[in-house]
Amino acid sequence: MYLHLGQDTVVRSREVIGIFDLENTSISKLTKEFLTQAEKEGRVCNVSYELPKSFVICAWKGKQIVYITQISSATLKKRAGFIDDIANISR
């Protein structure tokens, strides 16, 4: 199944490591360092033309990609839960 992150970007739900609220988590020094390092390494993909609300960390081809999106973490969590619900029904 896939998770829509905004604009024309979708990721496989099994690649998602975590969904984080940007406002709450960017207070942490460790989170700031993580995002700064990911940016330096070219592992950040901004999928928003609007004010970002959350970021999603995905594992793809052995490395982590950070997607910055305007969609709230709550909405993304609901979408991810909906995907899990559908997957459980089809089993």
> What share of the residues lie within helices?
25-40%
Number of helices: 3
The CA-CA distance between the termini, in Å, is: 13 Å
> What is the overall shape?
globular
How many individual domains? 1
Strand order of the largest sheet: 3-5-6-4
Structural class: alpha+beta
- Low-pLDDT stretches: none
* Beta-strand percent range: 35-45%
The overall pLDDT average reads 86
Number of strands: 6
SSE ordering: EEEHHEEEH
Largest sheet geometry: 4 strands, mixed
- Assembly form of the protein: single chain
Question: What value does the Rg take, in angstroms?
Answer: 13 Å
Question: Can you characterise this structure?
Answer:
The chain is α+β, with helices and mostly antiparallel strands. It has one domain (about 1-90). Helices cover about 35% and strands about 35% of the residues. The protein has helices at about 20-25, 30-40, 75-90, and strands at about 1-5, 10, 15-20, 45, 55-60, 65-70. Strands 3-5-6-4 form a four-stranded mixed sheet. A hairpin with a 2-residue loop joins strand 1 and strand 2. The protein is globular, with a radius of gyration of 13 Å. The two termini are about 15 Å apart.
